[in-house]
């Protein structure tokens, strides 16, 4: 039996795509969905595993997924609106030794420091453009900072702090 405590939300099924059972899925993490053992859906209070037959990218936050046993748009429509989970152990999101385990969305709520100066708190991520941005609330102001590995010096999970080395003048933009 799969327990909710073993799962991490990875997205939602949005709508059928075409007539062969393919489903448009919005995703919360940039993960390789076919590499997962399975995806899990809550079906009438029971967490049920489904096996992904194929997956292709449709934009930055969307995938077209074919699930084993779902062969037409009516069956696909029955799954739409459902939250899609993965087994947390398959995701390896908590690995502190692996920087690839951090996703920008995981950093919402973290304080951003430029050296020793507190810039503010990450309140959201803007990823509708090619260059994703941290949206940082700084007092009454909102600051946009590019999410770039070369500017991030350290991520401290214990204190929910990110230490960055920002280029001069970036906060004035």
Structural features:
SH3 type barrels, 6-stranded mixed sheet, 2 domains, elongated, mainly beta, Elongation Factor Tu (Ef-tu), domain 3, 7-stranded antiparallel sheet, 173 residues, single chain
Could you explain the architecture of this structure?
It is built from two helices and 13 strands; from the N terminus they run ββββββαβαββββββ. The protein is mainly beta. A hairpin with a 2-residue loop joins strand 8 and strand 9. The strands form two sheets. It has a seven-stranded antiparallel β-sheet. A six-stranded mixed β-sheet has the order 11-10-9-8-13-12, with no helix packed on it.
CATH homologous group name of the largest domain: RimM
Per the CATH scheme, the topology name of the largest domain is Elongation Factor Tu (Ef-tu), domain 3
CATH architecture of the largest domain: Beta Barrel
Instruction: Name the shape in a single word.
Output: elongated
Rg estimate, integer Å: 19 Å
Q: Give average pLDDT, whole number.
A: 87
Q: What is the topology, as strand order, of the major beta sheet?
A: 4-3-7-1-2-6-5
* Helical stretch tally: 2
What is the CATH C-level name of the largest domain? Answer: Mainly Beta
Strand content: over 45%
Classify the oligomer: single chain
Please provide the ordered H/E string of secondary-structure elements: EEEEEEHEHEEEEEE
How many domains, in number, for the residues? 2
**Main beta sheet: strand number and arrangement?**
7 strands, antiparallel
Which class best fits the helix and strand makeup? mainly beta
Share of helical residues = under 10%
Distance between the termini: 52 Å
What are the low-pLDDT stretches, counting only 5+ consecutive residues below 50?
A: 94-100
Query: Count the strands?
Result: 13
